[in-house]
Amino acid sequence: MDIKDIIKPENVVFKKSSVMTDNVLHYCPGCTHGVVHRVIAEVIEEMGIQEKTIGVSPVGCSVLAYNYIDIDWQQAAHGRAPALATALNRLYPDKYIFTYQGDGDLASIGTAEIIHACNRGENILVVFINNAIYGMTGGQMAPTTLAGMPTSTSPYGRDVKLTGHPLKITEMLAQLPGTCFVTRESGETAAAVRKLKKSIQKGFENISKHKGTSFIEVVSTCNSGWKLSPVDSNRWMKENMFPVYPLGVLKDE
Amino acid sequence: MKGNEVIAEAAIRCGCDAYFGYPITPQSEVMETLMERKPWEETGMIVLQAESEVAAINMVYGGAGAGKKVMTSSSSPGISLKQEGITYIAGAELPCLVVNVVRGGPGLGTIQPAQSDYFQAVKGGGHGDYKLIVLAPNSVQEMNDFVDLGFELAFKYRNPVMILSDGIIGQMMEKVELSEYKPRLTDEEIVKRYGSWATTGKTKNRPRNVITSLELDSARQEVFNHKLIKKYQTIEENEVRYENFHTDDAEYLIVAYGSSSRISKKAVEMAREKGIKVGLLRPITLFPFPKKELAKLSKQVKGILTVEMSAGQMIEDVKLGVNCSIPVEHYGRLGGMIPSPDEIVTALEQKIIGGK
Prior knowledge:
The complex is a heterodimer. Helices cover 37% and strands 18% of the residues of chain A. By secondary structure, chain A is of the alpha/beta class.
């Protein structure tokens, strides 16, 4: 008996999006990146916009996003993804341009680029992964690291008197007239993933409506950096991240 | 027209798709001219004032990655800020044009002309083993001509090209013959020409295109580095450009580029009136440097004076070019000061002919 005889098309209840490649994800088990990648790929497939979508990946764990989502990609210098996306948007106004950035990339080294791209109302989608830590370089303090949270560069916990407060950049960007849709989501439960998917779809739809910048923060886990199990990471995120970074739509125009 | 204005006009006429810039003296007229000309209404060319030089060069990176003909311009401190983007563009093997209207440094320096960015332009500037193709205009006419030539070379080799100008040529007014209009490529033409690498949207009939300079496997990175080295060798074989002035019977040689070469021409004429048989070699491409021509002339002349508005940067390439076979001395003015022809003649007499 062949595998095809067992798994018949009519019996398939779930399958990988055709916009996801077969490459093995390098992300740690429990990491939120894989969930967000899948959701983006599903939305691109369902909207039928694979040929018109260009992604811009950052420096950080998701630098290799181009290995997983089967679209054209540009890999930006650290923090500069919104500048690349600006050029792509201006030169290809009918294409779907999105950036995928982490907290170090977007809220620290790339603060100027994201603020000005949003302020110009670039017709793009920004997906912002906030796990309050630099994952790829080994768990250093990020601008979004919580007060008192230990990291490899704040081993005794983040002292806000020394290094400032967790940066609520999403709230800042919601103030700018150039943004049309600003929301904070998560991906730790099936319900949260469904909500996230709706927001990402809305972000892509806003591009075709030329409404301005759509900005989706995803409060995420980094169990390796946090040194917790995936299950404990989700619990820690709910107990500690959500009070500082409350979920919900900040702006929808 | 002013040199800077001509850069803008030449960009529109050569079918440039986008200019991304940030104001800085002495080159702000480039973007000012473009904004006044409104090329988006005429050719569809995009002009955008970015929030910083860093953002501007990364917009160039994004546009270049999508197969578009894109450029930026700045002056020395701004070009320093662009180095990160330039090395990424070189590492991702993308074509683009960067204009540097050089002013004196280091630091904020002065807003007056200088040639003190030679090392930065020719030897790297950003990190990693890469080269720019560097064109050094010495007239407003060449500011016009080198925009089109620069884009041609950039796309031929998929490599960033720099026009290394300076505050004199940028601000100087001269008569210029502007180029004929060339149409911008359509998106369909871009797919046809550059669809094998540019992010024009992944269609069913091709694998996805990825613009990146990242390689985690060192063995693969080394192979890529060798590919770049080979490309630079090809450029050295094919693209050397220079100008000779009175070198046929020369016993002494001045080597100078850009503004200094204009002044040195006058110095050559003045020296010849005094009976000194001196010629001028003007490198037009600084990378690739005219090494072969220099080596040839070094067998003929007794000594070389390099004239630069710097502390002496190109002189290192001249010394390498003649392999220490004859004396090579430097004469330069700094900080925005400009050498006069008689100063150059005196330097030639004292440093080269008189012998030290």
